[in-house]
Write a structure and sequence with these properties.
The protein is mainly β. The chain is 4% helix and 13% strand. It is built from one helix and eight strands, in the order ββββββββα. The strands form three sheets. The chain has a four-stranded antiparallel sheet, covered by helices on one side. Strands 1-2 form a two-stranded antiparallel sheet. Strand 7 and strand 8 form a beta hairpin.
């Protein structure tokens, strides 16, 4: 953990139980694949792609072209090594570089943001270190892997595994594809950086 990959002092490592493939040798403890940073593996988002309202999530790499993601098959059976899907993007694929997030403060290794209709519709963030240890709280629309409050103040919890959608102080870092970094203080700005539009 003493490396640049664990360089954010505000990140609280995620712990998993013994037998979980995300820890070293399945021994349990710190989840090595959750370093506190997530890469945007979806450079095909534009202000017009995908078409607004195609489905509730409208997520490239999920409901829209599941193969359009720079990721490997991470199922435990393949021990994170079997490349059966995904796409290997070159840097030039990250167009609108000054506006497009490349890496951000995230709860997982991938920066993902599902479609959302308004700022008020963004649900409370799930808490991976909660007793229930969930990543998504469902029904998924408007959810994202950003850790919105890492450099701010977390709001109170609405349930055991979810923070309130309001309250707290938003503050999270994003490295953009042109090389500049910024601390964002609005949740909607993260969606713009990931999807190149907000809402939609």
């Amino acid at each position: 953990m003493n490396s640049v990959l664990w360089g954010c002092p505000n990140f609280v490592p995620i712990t998993v139980a013994a037998g979980d493939s995300r820890s070293a040798g399945g021994a349990g403890g710190v989840a090595l694949v959750y370093t506190g940073y997530g890469m945007n593996g979806f450079p095909e988002y534009t202000a017009r792609n995908p078409v607004v309202g195609a489905d509730p999530l409208n997520a490239i790499g999920d409901t829209v072209d599941p193969n359009a993601v720079s990721s490997v098959d991470c199922s435990p059976a393949y021990n994170w090594s079997n490349i059966t899907s995904g796409r290997w993007y070159k840097q030039k694929a990250y167009t609108s570089a000054a506006d497009r997030a490349l890496v951000g403060d995230c709860r997982a290794y991938v920066l993902e943001a599902f479609a959302v209709t308004s700022d008020a519709a963004i649900p409370g963030q799930a808490d991976l270190n909660s007793p229930s240890s969930v990543f998504w709280v469902g029904p998924y629309a408007g959810e994202t892997s950003y850790d919105f409050y890492r450099h701010g103040t977390y709001p109170r919890r609405s349930t055991n595994n979810q923070f309130n959608a309001s309250g707290g102080k938003v503050g999270y870092n994003v490295l953009f594809a042109d090389g500049h970094a910024s601390t964002l203080v609005q949740r909607s700005d993260g969606f713009r950086a990931a999807r190149l539009r907000f809402p939609g």
